[in-house]
Amino acid sequence: MTNTDLKVEKDFHTIINERHSVRKYDPAWKMSEEEINNILSDAILAPSSSNLQPWRFIVIQDQNTKEKLLPIANNQQQVVEASAVIAVLGDIEAYENVEKIYDLAVEDGIMTSEIRDMMVKNTRNYYPNAGKEKLKEIALVDGGLISMQLMLAAKARGYDTVPMGGYNAEQFKQLFDVSDRYVTVMLIALGKSIAEARPTVRLPLEDVTFWNEFKN
């Protein structure tokens, strides 16, 4: 099986309309490291607070490891049948990378040294003093942004996904020895679907959109 069997989409409108949560995957379909890296490379273009990019990924392809993850993820079969499960984590101390990030911006010629120094100073002044709950909130928001971008990138390349919040976060962190510096955002099953996604509906736009005011 090759990626020539996949339906690759280029039109964004088609991608967002055809992306649905899929729970049935071909267990024989193996994605290459290159394919997964291409999807992740698209995903990391997502925005983040102060461009600190707090997301971290654990790509789980080993079948034995997926079997260990299965009961932690409430025995959702896509965990063991999808080509990979990508765990999205958020680094609440992402500000520790601020010098590296802005040094790269200077090297690429998209930022002056003066602006770099100002951004580093502002980041160092704010984030370490923001409090753990605020840093967790930022990491979860940024983690949500990149998770959605990851799922759209996968769909554009012919693959399907399903985001999963139904798992025991503490047991997951124990299994992968994840420290308290990181918060779990979600698990995303990734692979080739073998069944159509269940149709869903959306509330009318007028039910969720308010102009210049908010009505409870």
TrEMBL record:
Domain of life: Bacteria
Xref: Gene3D superfamilies: NADH Oxidase
Molecular function GO terms recorded: oxidoreductase activity
Domain Nitroreductase: 16-192
Pfam families: Nitroreductase (PF00881)
Sorted UniProt keywords: Oxidoreductase
Xref: SUPFAM superfamilies: FMN-dependent nitroreductase-like
Family: Belongs to the nitroreductase family.
Name of the protein in question: NAD(P)H nitroreductase
